[in-house]
Amino acid sequence: MKLFQKLISWVRGLFAERPRGVEFIEGDELPVHFATRNLYVAREDGELWSAGLNCPCGCGRRLEVMLLDEVKPRWDLSIDNSGLPSLHPSVWIADGCRSHFWLRHGEIHWC
Amino acid sequence: MSTDVTTEESRGLFIEVAGTDLVFRPVSIADRSPTGRQILGYCDVAPREEYIVLQWLSEGDVEEVRSDETVNLDGQTAAKFIVSKADRLYRFFLNDRSLSWPDRSISEAALRILGKIPSAELLYVRREVESDRPIEVGSSLPLADLGVESVYSRLAQWDLNVQGVTVKFDRPDVLVRDALVKAGFNPEQGWIIVLKTRDGKRQVTIDEMVDLRSPGIEKLRLTPREINNGEVPQSRRQFRLLPVDEEGLTARGLRWETFVDGARRWLVLHAMELPPGYAVASTSIAIEIPSSYPTAELDMFYCYPQLSRQDGMTIPQTQVTEAIEGRGFQRWSRHRGAIAPWRPGLDNVITHLALVEAALLREVEV
Ligand SMILES: [Zn+2]
Asked: A58 alpha carbon to ligand 1 midpoint, in Å?
């Protein structure tokens, strides 16, 4: 499975996949469906609640990770000068496709 | 001789009188149509001009009886009066009845008595701009601050927003699990649950109680707990294995932990890669370590998630589920038997693992 994901990532890399941008959503929740391949971020009163994206493996799953300080597990979101998002640490799906990847500067790096 | 003013007609006639505490006591009167001034006289208060008389009417209104005003006491039951030292009256509404009150504030207890409001109901003050304010038990309502206050009662009810679904409760202590069920979410699915209040937020567990009386409770916000953040949690070492076991497991790059659940000791190996042919790519494998290990033998092993074959064929002797720390592990009844008996001093976790791997491979071998 991991090998397969790496292969897909490599094939996509050949076609120079566009990096993912960020879309902020006002409120504490993210939409049920993500219309684009961007990273969606729920922000309320300047506070970041969570980030979400469609699973980059293509399985169609909606992924959401928490950004709140008060919550575990949680992730850190950073946005570079080009407006490209990074998540720290890696995202690791416990079941189903079991994808494990890093989002760095809008690009998916498979583990 | 002075009691002779009591006529035959008025003999045994009395009214009930209370202060702002609304503790009523009977007061004898001589006349079926006393004035306010006479009532003060019966109550024996002085100086009369500093006191105010109010009548609590049977319909619920409370009205002033002026000193020269006459009250007609034709009713069957004793009339109720509130007599209090006061220089002015404060008017308010209680469940749409008009009341006058001789004090700058009125206690919640007095409101309940005057409105005949049962304890199952809560009291609220109507507000125009903000939401209506509850009157807490034991508190009092100031009457001099704003205009004419309007108080109403209704059955206690608490609202909670559970991920966009508003659920109503008739009691204020709510188990998070119950709130999820009531809102239509499966509590067993595994959630990151954040209790959001006006003042902040905190993560709560499924078995926590939330007090909806605390002001500013807004919402239980849910996120599926299906993604790990790649940080490998600290593995537990609640008991030691043999040195050869610990070195062997570490050398193989396995993530493992030892812990005690109930009275049983478990070694759990995480993210064990499986040979092709199973529905999942990896599993956790648990091995029970008897307290007299390594003299006592290791027997069987347990898998979580439970394994099934991709082709749907059943795997024999795996029908029993064993709860280990609340997770349902699938027991693989694989025994050493006469062919490969346990050899104390030679066999250990590492040699047992070889049997485990062989058993897992056997089921999917072509
Ligand atoms: Zn996926």
From this structure: 6
Interface check B163 vs A, CB under 8 A:
yes
Report CB contact under 8 Å: A28, B163: no
Ligand 1 mean position, distance from CA A7 (Å): 14
Residues of A in contact with B231 (CB under 8 A): 73, 89
Q: Is residue B71 part of a domain?
A: yes
- Encoded tokens for B231: 């940080």
Residues B311 and B219 in one domain: no
| Distance, CA of A54 to CA of A91 (rounded, Å) | 12
For residues B180 and B273, membership in a common domain is answered with no
How close A69 comes to chain B (CA, Å)?
9
Tens digit of each residue's pLDDT, chain B (366 residues): 444 444 445 557 889 999 999 999 999 988 889 999 999 999 989 898 999 999 999 889 999 999 999 998 876 678 999 999 999 999 999 998 999 999 999 999 999 999 999 887 889 999 988 888 889 999 999 998 878 999 999 887 888 999 988 898 888 899 999 999 999 888 888 899 999 988 888 999 888 999 988 777 779 999 988 887 765 555 788 898 998 898 888 777 788 899 999 889 999 998 888 999 998 888 899 999 999 999 999 999 999 989 999 998 999 999 999 999 888 899 999 988 877 789 988 899 999 999 999 999 999 987
Residue B220 and residue B266 in one domain: no
Q: Which of A94, A102, A111 comes nearest B227 by C-beta?
A: A94
Same domain, B270 and B316: yes
Q: Is residue B56 part of a domain?
A: yes
In a shared domain, residues B30 and B57:
yes
Closest chain B CA to residue A2:
B281
DSSP 8-state assignment for residue A79 = E
Distances, alpha carbon B154 to alpha carbons A111, B54, B105, B264, B335, in Å: 58, 27, 21, 54, 67
Distance A55 CA to ligand 1 centre (A): 5
Residues B272 and B218 in one domain: no
Q: Are B310 and B275 in contact (CB under 8 A)?
A: no
Neighbour tally for B213: CB within 10 Å: 15
* Pairing label, strands B327-332, B301-304: antiparallel
Q: In terms of residue numbers, what domain contains B210? A: 158-224
